[in-house]
Amino acid sequence: MSKRLFMLLISLVFVSSLTTVSFTQENQGSTSGVSADGTDTYVGTVSRVDEPDSLKYSAPKPVIYFDGYNTYINTRVAYKLSAKEDLQKNKLYYKIDNGSEKEYTAPFSFEAEGRHTVTYRSADRMERRGNENIFVVVLDDSAPVITLLSEVPVIKNEGIVYLAPESVFTIKVYDAYSGVNSVKYAINGEELKDYERSFSLPPDSKELDIKITASDNVGISTDKYTIKAKDTNNKDVEVSSAGLKLVRDTTPPDVVISADKEIFQNEKELNIVAKDYKYSISAIDEEAGVANILYRISGDRDFQNYTQPFTLKNSGINKIEAKAIDKVGNVSAPVALTVFVDVVPPTTLIKPIVDESTGY
Fold first, then answer.
1. pLDDT of residue 26
2. Which positions ≥6 away from 346 have C-beta within 8 Å?
3. Does domain 254-341 have CATH number 3.30.930.10?
4. Is residue 80 within 8 Å of 90, Cβ to Cβ?
5. Which of 86, 269, 304, 334 is the most exposed place for a label (fewest CB within 10 A)?
6. CA–CA dist 319, 356 (Å, integer)
7. In angstroms, rounded to a whole number, what is the distance separating the alpha carbons of residues 61 and 181?
8. Same fold, 145-248 and 254-341
9. pLDDT per residue as tens digits for the range 96-115
10. Which residues contact 173 (CB under 8 A, 6 or more apart)?
């Protein structure tokens, strides 16, 4: 064999050893071909088996998801480099993102959530390195974010949310990386079912238990959610589902009209008052709380907001009506107080005494 032919064979072996490295993620035991993301590889999946299951892992098993554009993984997926066996022993080198290049010795994974670029190549025993290959992967290590939107929930005490009788709920779920895979919900111990559209609550329940679960495309799930809404004063209401108690408030406030002085009744049980009497209206709601008190006086067409005690301007018969609205929209039936405003002072008479024994 001529020296020139021998050198040509050596060169072919060298080129072969530099171009057969592959970046692999095992998938059902495959050893060659094309991976799920379309990358030519010698494929096989490597899960993180060096540590036991713990809260460190947000996903129960390794999952790789390719959406046609990006490859998403969870923290249980690790990667290995491999190269074809050849006459010359290969070394493998790689670097992650902007890190320094280092020799590959064992499967590796990613710590920081987000997009990562892996640059890798092989070398022969004389450290002649081949062309760089690049693989991009996105680590998804966070569960979806669930928001339960309601019309007018009102937080009265920590951990308690009072709901309007006719509340309608909408579930919104967002996942920053691999995307939402499924959303399920259940009310009062029912079996979880797929969420498809807004829903109302069963009318026969006072206390409510709403469960929601959502998972993303790399198998990370959560059952935590946040209720967001506006109250009757158009203020934002936001509360976490952790330790949450939901109560349907169907009870309107109790309303009382009172005067600042004693009201007298005549023989016909007519309430007699003077013009300087002041009237107050109070309301109590043990659940969601009182939002507004409204009142009107006979002759008025519309109710107006009650803000402070008032007097009656007209003499004679006056009717005061009042009602209250709680913070989830329950309206009380009007209560009324009818009084006669007496503005005529008493008549005083003088008579002579002609019989000292009787005073007449």
1. 42
2. none
3. no
4. no
5. 269
6. 49
7. 16
8. yes
9. 999 999 998 888 989 899 99
10. 144, 145, 146, 147, 180, 183, 214
The pair of three-digit structure tokens given for residue 201, joined into one six-digit string = 């609550």
Q: Name residues whose C-beta falls within 8 Å of residue 292's C-beta, 6 or more positions apart in sequence.
A: 232, 305, 324, 325
Percent pLDDT > 70 in the chain is 79
Question: How many whole angstroms separate alpha carbon 67 and alpha carbon 216?
Answer: 12
Q: Which fold has domain 145-248?
A: Immunoglobulin-like (2.60.40)
Angle at 120 between CA 114 and CA 121, to 5 degrees: 175
How does pLDDT run across 139-198, given as a tens digit for each residue?
999 999 999 998 888 887 777 899 988 889 999 999 999 999 999 999 999 999 999 999
In this predicted model, what pLDDT tens digit does every residue of 29-60 receive, in sequence order? 333 334 444 443 433 345 554 554 444 567 88
The domain segmentation of the chain, as residue ranges, is 3-139, 145-248, 254-341
Q: Is 225 exposed, middle or buried (0-12, 13-18, 19+ CB in 10 A)?
A: buried
Q: Supply φ then ψ for residue 283, to 5 degrees.
A: -140, 145
H or E element at residue 12? helix 3-18
